[in-house]
Design a protein that fits this description.
Number of strands: 15
Distance between the termini: 64 Å
Number of helices: 11
Order of helices and strands: EEHEEHHHHEEEEHEEEHEHHHHEEE
Radius of gyration: 32 Å
Oligomer: single chain
Low-confidence stretches: none
Structural class: alpha+beta
Largest sheet: 4 strands, mixed
Strand content: 5-15%
């Protein structure tokens, strides 16, 4: 990468030919092997503790705290344990998740994030329960007294990124701490009709799925199934998670009708622009631009040559100073002037390359535009990939006003109302 590396302790200078430079890669390899070996030993120790039922996480589940006499043992947290018991009690009685959320918020019961904030974190958090936070508690087997760990792992000892593990890799040790709910009640809640939704894994996404956005809150409009999964609906994700809190407004639409109308609007828009814009003429102008681009390429190559020559002179200048051929003042004066020249040339080069990159991007968009539009108009059932090449997002408000934002600048955003002039 043409970067000079100097290490005082190891006596390494990548611009010089020394024995220490040759040894440096082996030192780096040895250090990496040491880190990897240390990571394996630590993981082995932690796994052993997990298999013994010892808690090794950073923060216990909401409702529990570490035992002051045994850091690997959990005991109920008297401040919030009753909140967890109340949540399971209400769920067992058949009360819906939204009603449980409303009860918790209406009674100002500390949420998990707020309780954690009052204990340690300096970040300000709002005391709001959500459907997802209640669901997380109701699904957590830890509340039955079983220790559930190893549900996720780091990708490697070099990365802090974590990935979820399949259940077959989980380490579960039963009856390690006091339960907040009985196993019978927990299983009953998991198997209740309200919580056993049938979902389709690896299903094919609908045509405009993930492109629909709520104008009021900016969240996605999600798709759900009704009537034995034969009836698709669209609604605001934020509203449907907690309707009683009024965090947003309902955006309920039958999806199939919405898809049909949106596809008609997109087709009509694309057809209109094909008639108004001479794409062939547009492509010809772009090809003419290539003549100017060639001159720009010559200028770019000339700048690169000048920069490389100045860097070579700078290397020679350093060697002269290292061998005491020139004085420090002479070296500093010439080096500073040379570095300023290099910086000026690199700035010019960056500006030229940035312009070339934008031109190439515009050219590709224009050349692809005609084929993509024609494909959309010719296909009876266009696929998602084709739609996504043309449409960036579709913003819908509570009154069914729609704004279609296209990816290409040659297309204006289209605003319409789905209910206008229709049943």
């Amino acid at each position: 990468m043409n970067i000079r590396y100097i290490s005082i302790i190891d006596q390494v200078d990548s611009f010089l030919e020394t024995a220490n430079n040759d040894i440096a890669p082996f030192k780096a390899l040895f250090n990496d092997m040491t880190s990897k070996d240390t990571s394996k030993k630590i993981r082995s120790i932690l796994k052993n503790k997990k298999e013994q039922g010892k808690f090794i996480g950073s923060n216990p589940s909401y409702g529990y705290m570490r035992d002051p006499l045994d850091k690997g043992h959990l005991i109920p947290d008297s401040v919030v344990a009753l909140n967890v018991k109340k949540i399971f009690e209400m769920a067992y009685e058949g009360i819906g998740i939204s009603d449980i959320v409303s009860y918790l918020n209406d009674n100002n019961i500390l949420s998990p994030s707020m309780y954690k904030n009052t204990k340690s974190s300096s970040k300000q958090k709002t005391n709001i329960w959500t459907v997802s936070s209640v669901n997380k508690i109701l699904k957590n087997r830890m509340y039955t007294g079983d220790m559930v760990q190893n549900v996720q792992t780091k990708l490697s000892y070099k990365s802090q990124k974590k990935v979820a593990l399949e259940k077959s890799f989980w380490i579960i040790v039963e009856n390690t701490h006091e339960p907040l709910v009985s196993k019978e009640v927990f299983e009953n809640i998991q198997n209740s009709p309200a919580r056993t939704r049938v979902t389709f894994k690896n299903r094919e996404k609908r045509l405009f799925e993930n492109l629909l956005i709520c104008k009021e809150c900016g969240n996605a409009l999600s798709l759900t199934y009704r009537k034995n999964h034969k009836y698709w609906t669209v609604n605001c994700n934020k509203y449907s998670r907690d309707p009683r809190r009024g965090l947003c407004t309902p955006h309920f639409f039958p999806y199939d009708k919405l898809e049909k109308e949106l596809l008609e609007i997109v087709r009509n828009t694309c057809s209109k622009y094909l008639e108004e814009i001479n794409v062939q003429e547009l492509s010809k102008k772009i090809n003419d631009q290539e003549i100017k681009d060639n001159k720009s390429k010559e200028e770019e190559n000339n700048l690169i040559s000048q920069i490389n020559e100045l860097k070579r002179k700078l290397d020679v200048l350093y060697e002269d100073r290292y061998n005491v051929v020139i004085s420090v003042d002479t070296y500093m004066r010439i080096a500073k002037s040379t570095e300023n020249n290099i910086a000026s040339l690199e700035k010019q080069l960056s500006e030229i390359q940035s312009k070339d990159k934008n031109k190439k991007g515009d050219k590709k968009k224009f050349l692809d535009y005609e084929s993509q539009i024609n494909s959309l108009l010719n296909l009876d059932n266009p696929n998602r990939e084709l739609i996504k090449t043309l449409v960036d997002k579709i913003i819908i408000d509570q009154d069914k006003n729609v704004e279609i934002v296209y990816k290409f600048k040659v297309l204006d955003n289209i605003k319409t109302n789905l209910g206008k002039g229709k049943d």
